[in-house]
């Protein structure tokens, strides 16, 4: 059996065909232009394969409430042309197969829980620190939606005492995305983040922010694994710094061997390399197929 997956981003759409074991048979990446252009190209791609279902891990915000009239839509995105796009409806009409749908980061955590570094966990989170910051949440064996869906990238943080940067989120002066995304690092220090590798104070401040967010997720979601990734985490020295700071912040309060003795197995990069998002999308398709089969 083959399943299609789409990792739908604001810059590119990664489309893949995989089997039910998560083995990718083929993939393409298409630039995200207007829906009327890009969605048709994606349908043409999947038309060449016999896929039983499709899953989409999508940039947001999205409507995940199955009882809502706008379920399966991208809602109030600033991405030109995509606001109120009925992406699930489009593929259902074009392909006549079950279409699973969730946020890109929920897709990524699902990929890691199914085939990657959080395999076997019934609670895990995936946090990406890149152009933005996003958090996918898997709790008690399912993806967390709630009122809308978690927006853990906008968690409010205490500012570093030496940080005079005003933040770049238009909504919050002190949220994680505004203070710790790759572009925020670039603006604060006057150079792209990738060119600041040798500046210790840059990564000390970055670890201060990431660790605060993780400590908050640990005490709220109690994840069994934290998968940490995104362009900023190419600075691999951050992993050790973040683990140490998380321990300091929790100060022994959450007592578990994963935190006390095995934190280097707890806060980890994905095991699926660049593929947690696309494989998670495939898994979303499989789950929708099972759901519709009853
Ligand atoms: P996106 O978030 O757009 O999906 P990425 O997760 O790859 O994409 O994040 C891209 C961002 O990560 C860039 O804007 C840049 O700020 C940051 N970044 C990329 N490479 C590095 C690096 N080597 N070191 C630090 N930051 C980086
Ligand atoms: Zn914000």
Q: What labels would you give this structure?
A:
5-stranded mixed sheet; alpha/beta; Nucleotidyltransferase, domain 5; 294 residues; binds zinc ion; single chain; 2 domains; binds adenosine-5'-diphosphate
Provide a quick synopsis of the model.
With 294 residues, the chain is α/β, with parallel strands linked by helices.
Characterise the protein shown here:
- There is one protein chain.
- The chain has 9 helices and 12 strands.
- It is globular.
- Strand 8 and strand 9 (133-139) form a beta hairpin.
- The protein starts with a strand and ends with a helix.
- It has a 5-stranded mixed β-sheet with strand order 3-2-1-4-7.
- It has helices spanning 35-47, 87-95, 104-115, 176-180, 182-189, 200-221, 237-250, 257-260, 276-293; strands at residues 2-8, 12-19, 24-31, 53-58, 73-74, 85-86, 99-103, 124-129, 133-139, 142-143, 225-229, 267-268.
- The chain has 294 residues and is α/β, with parallel strands linked by helices.
- 36% of the residues lie in helices and 20% in strands.
- It has 2 domains: 2-106 and 274-293, Nucleotidyltransferase, domain 5, CATH 3.30.420; 117-268, ATPase, nucleotide binding domain (Nucleotidyltransferase, domain 5), CATH 3.30.420.
- Bound molecules: adenosine-5'-diphosphate (ADP) and zinc ion.
- The site of zinc ion has 7 residues, from helix 4.
């Amino acid at each position: 059996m083959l399943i299609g997956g789409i990792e739908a981003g604001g810059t590119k759409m990664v489309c893949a065909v995989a089997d039910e074991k998560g083995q990718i048979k083929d993939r393409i990446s298409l630039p995200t232009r207007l829906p009327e252009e890009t969605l048709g190209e994606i349908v043409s791609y999947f038309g060449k394969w016999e896929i039983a279902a499709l899953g989409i891990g999508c940039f947001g915000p999205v409507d995940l409430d199955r009882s809502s009239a706008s379920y399966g839509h991208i809602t109030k995105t600033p991405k030109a042309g995509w606001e109120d796009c009925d992406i699930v409806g489009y593929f259902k009409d074009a392909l006549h197969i079950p279409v699973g749908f969730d946020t890109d980061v929920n897709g990524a955590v699902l990929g890691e829980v199914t085939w990657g570094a959080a395999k076997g966990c019934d609670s895990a989170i995936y946090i990406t620190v890149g152009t933005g910051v996003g958090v996918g949440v898997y709790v008690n064996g399912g993806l967390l939606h709630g009122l809308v869906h978690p927006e853990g990238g906008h968690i409010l943080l205490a500012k570093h005492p030496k940080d005079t940067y005003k933040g770049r989120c238009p909504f919050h002066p002190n949220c994680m995305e505004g203070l710790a995304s790759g572009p925020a690092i670039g603006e604060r220090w006057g150079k792209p983040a990738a060119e600041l590798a040798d500046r210790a104070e840059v990564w000390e401040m970055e670890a201060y922010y990431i660790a605060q967010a993780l400590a908050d997720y640990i005490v709220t979601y109690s994840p069994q694994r934290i998968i940490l990734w995104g362009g900023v985490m190419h600075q691999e020295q951050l992993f050790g710094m973040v683990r140490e700071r998380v321990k300091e912040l929790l100060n022994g309060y959450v007592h578990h061997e994963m935190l006390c003795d095995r934190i280097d197995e707890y806060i980890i990069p994905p095991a699926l390399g660049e593929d947690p998002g696309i494989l998670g999308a495939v898994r979303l398709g499989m789950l929708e197929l099972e759901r519709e089969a009853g």
